[in-house]
Write a structure and sequence with these properties.
By secondary structure, this protein is of the alpha/beta class. It is built from 16 helices and 21 strands.
Amino acid sequence: MNGKGRVILIGAGCGRYDLITLRGINALKECDTVVYDSLIDERLLDFCPKNAEKICVGKRAGRHSANQENINKLLAEKALQGRTVARLKGGDPFVFGRGGEEIQFLQKYNIMYSIIPGISSSTAAAELAGIPVTHRDISRSFHVITGHTSKDILCENLDSYAKLDGTLVFLMGLSNLEGIAEGLIQNGMSGDVPAAVISKCESPNQRTVRARLCDISNAVKRERLEPPAVIVVGDTADFDFSPSYKLPLENISVAVTSTAKTSEKLIKLLEKEGAYARRLCGLEVREICENPAFDDALNNVCEYDWLVFTSPNGAEFFLDRLRRQRFDVRKLGQIKLAAIGGGTAEILESFGLYPELVPNEFTTECLAKTLAEQVSTEEKILILRSADGSPRLTEILSERGVSYNDIHLYEPVYSEGENPFQAEYDYLIFTSASGVRNFFKSGHTVGDETKIICIGRITADTLKEYNISDFMIPEEYSAEGIVNLIKEEENAKI
């Protein structure tokens, strides 16, 4: 790229991705490069363009974070290449986020920049734990203090902080908690002052420990709280304004191994019920562009009596091809449509194509059996699906003497070079055999406490190939069926 680019400092907010601002989301959608910290919710990266360069500069998987000087140079280098660089930082860029240092470096090179504030954990962590940092007649101010210095030693000026009125909020100070508490008490603050520590704010693993200042360190050790954490000291820490209304799946974490299109509806439903849901692994699908078999079938589509779609992806690729070729859909007027489930049917209906057949059970086998019962031996079927589609569909149709043409529109693209990890979620969902293969071929494993859910017997059989036999299958093979199963499981715990 030629010419100068720019850098946008974006506050990612505190915890879940939807606490970022709308302005921040819009900026991510326009970036060429995103440089992000490890504490952000990685679902924010889904808002970046697909071809955007993504660079993590935070501590991860045993690797130390990049030092600030290297981050500064990286931002400048990318901007000078003419790129729009999103610098995505947890919380707010200017609340111990070192955003000012990055701007000073950019100014040296006359690089354009802009700033988008974010919700800081200095107020949000306490608030989400039900603790107000100010309250009338009790605390008329709050003070935000770093819990450690640049040399990772105990924060300074504890003698001054001990004499302040209002609420004290320490960020990044969990490792120094004992010294902070002792320092405040030694400098005149009462050991009976309320205190609280909020760990992993606004995540499924958020935990809060409350105690008197003199015992807060011991209480945190007993509960084994982990960073990142926020320390609150002051009378308002005695309040508990935790929300009295909670969604059914609040604090439940769910990972979905699926393509982006297939997982979209499921993740939305899970989030609506309060779950933390994200797509896991990089399973993608790729259109088979050089596809003479499909071109021939489309040119002679009037020879077919049925078009059969076995996935939302297949329906999307089919419709995209029609648009690109300016295909006259009136040619489909006498052709019947079959869709494997409601999600696939919705995509077709958005184009004004309404399936005559959607089986009661959203599986390949049920689709095949239903078709075989309704299609006469004189009729011909055009199947439009993935290159790794289940053989059960064509096996059943062949057994019943049904004539068909099986056309592959797309193929799975498996993850490569991804570091193996253990999936530590409450629930891990597999929506296809391809998702199972992608997960285990990449070397990933399932956490001991993680419950596995899969859709359909074919996906279940593939799990067994990897010696996984402890899993659940929803009664209804759909996004709604999965959500209902998780709700039933959680209700059973009560």
